[in-house]
Amino acid sequence: MPDWSYHPLFKPLLFRMPAAKARSLTLRAIGTLNSLPGGYLLIELMGHMKPEPELRRTVWGREFSAPVGLSGRIDPELAATGALGKFGFGFLEVGPGFRSEVSLDTAGEAVVYGAPLPELDEADFVQRLERHRSVGVPLAVRAGRGQDAAWMQRMEKYAALFLFEGTEEEYRAAKASVRVPVVVVVQGDLPAWPELDGVYLEEPCGRVGREGTTRALELLRAWKAARPDVPVLAGGGVYEPQDALDLYAAGADLVMLDSGFVFSGPGLPKRINEAVLDERLQAARTGARVESAEGAEGAEGDVSVVTKGGTGWLSWFLMGCGVFFAGMIAMLVGLTDVILAHDEQFLGLTREEIAGWSEELFHFMSHDRITLAGIMLSAGFLFAQLAWHKIRRGERWAVVLFAAAAGYGFLNFLYSYVVGYIDSLHVIYNLLILPFFLWGLVRTRELSTPHGSLNRRNTKAWKKGLVGQLMFVVLGAALLTAGVVISAIGMTGVFVPEDLAYMGLTPEQIHEYNHRLIPLIAHDRAGFGGSLITEGLLLLLISLWGYRQGESWLWWSYLIGGFFGLAAGIGVHVKILYTDFWHLLPAYIALALYLVGLICSHEYLRKTKPPV
Fold this sequence. Notes:
alpha/beta; TIM Barrel; 2 domains; eight-stranded parallel barrel; three-stranded antiparallel β-sheet; 13 strands; 9% strand; elongated
């Protein structure tokens, strides 16, 4: 449930339900998804939330993959602990005593925790912990006032640290009984106890909302002024990336999300992580110092900025240009000759003979080749843009995306063997661009610059931009699905009923006229489907992984790349008078998604330029 689906689709529905029911439904759904074979891969694919290595932070002698965690109040039943560990958190709080009545103040953006409910008994709690042993992030186990030192000893094997509630005497007993750090929970007056491992400045249970930001900062500054040597975990009022940055700058070693995760969305930890990286990347480029409160033990991970991708990015940029140039040639052929000399040789027919037998069949063949050319122009432009703007800067997500989409593109050649027609120009085209792909693949293996984000606030442009992102994600998924369907049609029946109605022919008539015509058409159709899969992968992954505030190049890529594909796809149907409504309905839907996506993403993607 990334932000692009949570805010436009699910949040309005969930907020109409009782809070407890909505929470249970959501957590059980993502917990079930995570437990399915490959479910965790789908979570990572959709959200791409795994923290970058540069975010690692060591506090209390423990390494955290990211400086942000999640309060145990969010998932008191531990229904989705395994899944939540994949949302970009560096740690999760768990405990048996978080059950309570819950409601939402939607106008004030606050979660209201009411009367406590019976705690999980120890056996039940342990059983749930065992179920999530492979959660992948450290667990901060809450030791409430009902859990003594003996209980903590029994829970120690699950805990990276304990968050402790109790008296000073109980704290000393707890510290003496376990080997992991024991961090004191502070909701009011700051303790003057000596030899503290650390403190967790928590917003008191009850109403937990935005107003907690100011209080958290005041408590944090007071604590750091009195005890600057003691590590601090700060919670309360973190609704935007800037809230977390303010807490880090004021002295927090780690922050904990609570109600902000509900109102700002499940993408908040990822946004915080990217904001932290963005500050460090800008500092690394300018030589400035990022304000932070960590001591030597909590020093941030080094951020290396790779400003050159060797010759790898250039090789892939040239490959994208090559795909674009080939698309121009294919477009020219589709608009003029349609059938080339090697096609005529394969068929034993000239283009004039085909057009003389059935002008509609000849137009249909041009329709397939022009739509393929439009996809090649679009994909080539996107490949070149990705290489120039992101791979050139060494960003590893872009390398993975390029390799996946382009790698599949080369597999399209295998369709030729299935349909029985090997296009010699297709062979030459693949042989010409393959070295550029392979050279880029080798030379970009070690590119490792992490990606940050300029986004700091939950602005109207951000919320509107999520609708735009949703449109492009749906469009990418639709193109991918359409590509699979068209490829399957090309390798089996070749034609759909609307095609045959337009031509006024049956497959048997075409086969009787020339038994090689259908294999040639199948080659074009399956190749078009394969190209749609490549284009769909490009659009889907770039919208899932690369959609960030200020990425103006991406908006222009959507605009220009989409224009090539849609203009060719819809325009050729108008040109040859193949305007069956149901046949063109998917293209009309794609056009609507494209236009809404461009409008909604414009301010978010183009408002602020990314750092150079």
